[in-house]
Amino acid sequence: MAFQASTNGPALQALLPERSDPLPRGSRPNYNQIHALPIPLTTYPFPPLIPHNPLSLLQIAYIYISQVLRPPCSHPSTRYTAYISPETLSIHVTDSEATRALWRMGFFGKGSLSRSEPSWLDREMRRRGLLAGETSEEVTSRRRDERKEFKKERARKEREAIDEKLRQEGKVDPDANGAPVVNGHVVNAVNGHLSGLIPEHEDTESRIGQGDLDHKSAKPTEILTDGNSSPLSEIAKEKKPTQCMKAVRFSPPIEANEMRESSTVNTTAEVLTSGIEEAKEIQNQEHLQLTFEESFFLVYGLGVLNVIDQGTNTLVPITGLLSLFRRNSYSPPCSPSSVKPDDPFLVSYVTYHHFRSLGWVVRPGVKFAIDYLLYNRGPVFSHAEFAVMIIPSYSHPYWTATPARREETQKKESKGWWWLHCVNRVQSQVRKSLILAYIEVPPPEDERTNTGSDPPVNDVAEVGRSLKQYKIREVSLKRWIPNRSRD
């Protein structure tokens, strides 16, 4: 049976304890200044053109001529360095400056000891009392605790509202003392639960010794109320616990209190010095982890990263890096001759490169059962607006030339309605729009080389020639809810 009770009644308000004001939150960092650059490159845009001001034309002409004569460099003076481990095939950045730059300019990677932003060093310094501000993970944890307490408070109010409604409808008979009783049990109106029935002949018995209270001899007391007042308003008044005698020992009187110069410790200067020395002794044990797609985009797409083989300590070229990522995208890893045009890495990187080129901040979306999340500016500014699911598409005539290929491709690109409904419902619950990214897979390299195309000039041209064969189609999908989508 459903009950509707107002939480604004005077009887119910008497039950609720006065909630203390929430603690003031500290000032947030200036994320607009920290994440001013969307990618780790420096751009030099022209000033705006003002039609009614002829001097703006002269300024644009001067900047254009100066940049043509002396072109500015958009890339950093030294490329960032990442290491690939042959045992784990993980790519990590160990330099703290490179880690900070890659995260602040584009939100690349994640901290190895953090949920997202590399903040282990800040959390460790705050734990030791060397840092005053809160880290992002501490803010998230505090907000989760606040939401948990809010849900508990809301459940308690709902329980009290139901009890008040039952009492008003006469479905709960009050006992002699005015306390409501349900099935022979006294209702505890403070927490909304049922407590055991208290016999009338038992009385509270406490024995006070020399500073000790025998809790075993103490028995529960009945809840006393005034007959003229309502039990719910009076039961909120808590009885003071029985005061007991405590034995207190006093130290002997102090006859002299002499301050010696040699006993003065922990002065302000010494505390600051020790804090600075302790901060210098903390070694940052966290590094930045990069996915295969992020690493290859920084190497090939932006040209700001060098990947070093940790086993041989040599630079991995672009073609070697592409071949390594493609081979290890299978489980178990395959040989270079066994890779196919629809290998998981290449299909995933085409999608990543496409949305990064459009200006989106692309992050992994495994926690929402999809491939990628698209942020407008970054995770620190707002939640992701779109969720991307990658689906390979085989529309080239090569994939339907034989019955075996046709059957294999249909198995890869076909998805069931149950799968679609599950994924779409999850995204609608987290307020994200589902994007189905269909990747047009080209035929193998052997079929394309027979067309007489020009051979690549270098590694970058070869990679660009391979990626140019892929095409992407976007389909936006939204869950239709009848009671919200009526015309």
Question: How would you describe this protein?
Answer:
34% of the residues lie in helices and 13% in strands. It has 487 residues and is α+β, with helices and mostly antiparallel strands. Helix 9 runs antiparallel to helix 10 and helix 9 (292-302) crosses helix 11. Mean pLDDT is 77; it is low at 1-17, 189-244, 246-251 and 253-269.
Which value, in Å, is the CA radius of gyration? 35 Å
Estimated structural class: alpha+beta
In the sheet with the most strands, the strands line up as 3-8-2-1-9-10
Tell me how many strands there are.
Answer: 15
Largest sheet: 6 strands, mixed
Span between termini: 34 Å
Helix content: 25-40%
Total helical segments: 15
Strand fraction equals: 5-15%
**How would you sum up the global shape?**
globular
Poorly predicted runs of 5 or more residues = 1-17, 189-244, 246-251, 253-269
Estimate the mean pLDDT confidence: 77
Strand and helix order: HHHEEHEHHEEEEHHEHEEHHEEEHHEHHE
Question: Summarize this, please?
Answer:
This protein has 487 residues and is of the alpha+beta class. It has helices at 10-15, 31-34, 54-69, 96-104, 120-127, 136-168, 231-234, 268-281, 292-302, 318-328, 344-357, 403-413, 417-429, 445-449, 459-467; strands spanning 80-84, 91-93, 110-111, 173-174, 180-182, 185-188, 193-195, 288-290, 305-309, 314-315, 361-364, 372-375, 386-393, 433-440, 471-477. Helix 9 packs antiparallel against helix 10 (318-328) and helix 9 (292-302) packs across helix 11 (344-357).
